[in-house]
Amino acid sequence: MSKFDKSEDRRYSRVTERLNTDSGEAWQVHEEAMLMQKNGEDVVVLSIGDPDFRTPEPIIDNAISHMRVGRTHYSPALGELNLRRAVADYETKTSTHPCLASEVSIYPGVTSAIFAVMSCLLNAGEEIVVADPTYVGYIPVLQALNVKVKTVMCLSENNFEPQLKDLVAAITSETRVVFLNTPGNPTGAIISRDTLKKLASYCRERNIWLVCDEVYSMFTYESPHVSLRTAADRLDNIVVIDGLSKSHAMSGWRVGWAVAPEELTEHLGRFSVMSTFGSPQFIQDAAAFALNNDEYYVREMRNKYQARRDLVCSRLEQIPTLKFLRPESGMFIMVDVTELFADDKEFAKKLLDAEKVSVLPGSAFGVSTSGHIRLSLVQPEEILIEGCNRLQRFIHSLS
Ligand SMILES: Cc1ncc(COP(=O)(O)O)c(C=O)c1O
Fold first, then answer.
1. What structural domains does the chain harbor?
2. Is pLDDT above 70 for 4?
């Protein structure tokens, strides 16, 4: 008998152990809702973050035409020059600092960009500062790298925006990276230009990298997005990560990028050689086309999200036992349910059982948002209205 037949003799790396943590009750409601839907039940799913819009037709046509002419081979590890240039032009347009194609690296999605950047900046055991609440996808990346995560609490009275004094207080002599997300998932919090600017120079003086995930940059409603690259005076400790998953409804295409100093970009290229070995050519061609010709569709999708936000907020205003912050960006609304239930997971579970509406408990994202639920806006208006009707009925049934 081979040693491999006896499971106790099998050996897996420590990474598998660190990644094998129970994502817990937080996701149970979503998973149960998916199962109910699969079994034909009439579930209103407000627990996902994948845009419901179709990828705009001209982008699809562009990808197909590039496939037909043979753009189906390996591409350079750092990305095709046409896409790196399109990203650099976009970053130059949206920032006060010009951006060169040589500062841009391309990945199959933002998650992959984050993994590459963090792998090139952090050794196991080193310290990274992140905000709480945090996008759930960060934790597995940081667990895989076995780094020490320090969290900074973001309070609802500050619209969940991380405060400069709290970020500075969390930084120690061990800190190698501060990792931010603006506009933020789950709360839609926007970090002010002043905080970004001061933090960038504070970190620079201490040789600390400041990395910012800006994947919701194209979905701000009341005022334009302020990128870390715009706010910072100097860019030599700055990395901005962004992609097309949300802005262009292209989550399944897997397109992300990092904008970083050239020396780090060269390291990132070597990292990509041994990890992704580049992204498909026809996808990069279509992504470059998308970025160069996107004014109309991005504006249209943004207007729709804004209208959905206004609709859901106006319905929530009619339920006095719920408190919520009107998000200035993104695709989610955080609702404080503490007046009704001490435990957000219990609220989410009971709402699913009683009314077949799935939402995510805020505790899935961190301590700061426990006692909240996250409602997602990636559903057409009629489904959002039905979700609000059911939520209202559920809350009436409690009184
Ligand atoms: C803040 C944030 N970063 C990254 C991602 C993942 O992006 P991608 O699908 O491009 O990997 C998400 C997806 O929900 C997100 O909300």
1. 3-54+296-398 (3.90.1150.10), 70-293 (3.40.640.10)
2. no
